[in-house]
Predict the structure.
Amino acid sequence: MIKAGIIGGSGYTAGELLRLLVHHAEVEIDFVYSTTNAGKAIASVHHDLTGLLNLDFTDEINTSVDVIFLCLGHGNSKKFLLEHKVAEHTVIIDLSNDFRLEADAQFEGRSFVYGLPELVKEKIAQANAIANPGCFATAIQLALLPMAEAGLLPEEIHTTGITGSTGAGVQPSATSHFSWRNNNLSWYKPFDHQHLGEINQSLKQTDQKDHHVRFLPYRGNFSRGIFASNYFKFEGEVQKAKEIYKEFYKDSPFTHVSENELHLKQVVNTNLCFVHLHQHDDLLMVTSIIDNLLKGASGQAVQNMNLIFGIEEKQGLELKASYF
């Protein structure tokens, strides 16, 4: 049985991890660390875990568990690891952006592997530290990487992506408040989103080219999910492109090429990513959809844990979408 600890236990990603791990046949939740909620019942914060998880939050850490998930705000994972020495055998899976770029991957004797299974599954399986990808980064990379590997991705790529309010985290803000978000739409961080660094890094590692991903993110008036559309110059036939994508994802249990136009309800509450290709004249549009809290965060973290511990990749992640 894998003993797991969660650091930063009161946020959205920690809540999703707990919901997955409490049903995972190979995992025992050892502790959930939260300085703001220490001593409180976990179910008093994550109400749906009532009767499923009879643990309290703690401000003490078992540094010798098999795996630790860091669900901390960006910049805080490095600080935490400097203050708490984790056993060498303990796998670290970090859900922040602290270790995603190559320049940050070496830290305190650890070598963090960028944890996108569709890109480096074998490397993940040998790792003892994982930098879990960002949610937008996951959706966009899964739409672009097959063309990059085929050498058919041009330098100029135009991308739009719309995300649900949970992408902003559990702490309320002016733009996540219901009365502002509902019946509303807005862009933010145009062409300068923090996930562009990891996207460009993966693309360059794949085809050795510098790409310009012109990314415009939007805030959506829904809770969870990401809908990303990418288009770029393409001189071939769409059927050939579909064959490239299907070959690229043939061993990926969660990422699938769809012949149908996409909508978010296909993937919300699942660890799935669906990709759809549409050609217009000399442009190819590739749309991808994911649940930002699962395939874009906690579900992918569990997927990485499964790979590292030699468990069936889909273990604990057989979630169903709800259409209504």
Observations:
- The domain at 2-132+297-308 is CATH 3.40.50.720 (Rossmann fold).
- The helical segments are 12-21, 76-83, 117-125, 135-149, 178-181, 196-207, 238-248, 298-308.
- The mean pLDDT is 94.
- The first strand starts at residue 2 and ends at 7.
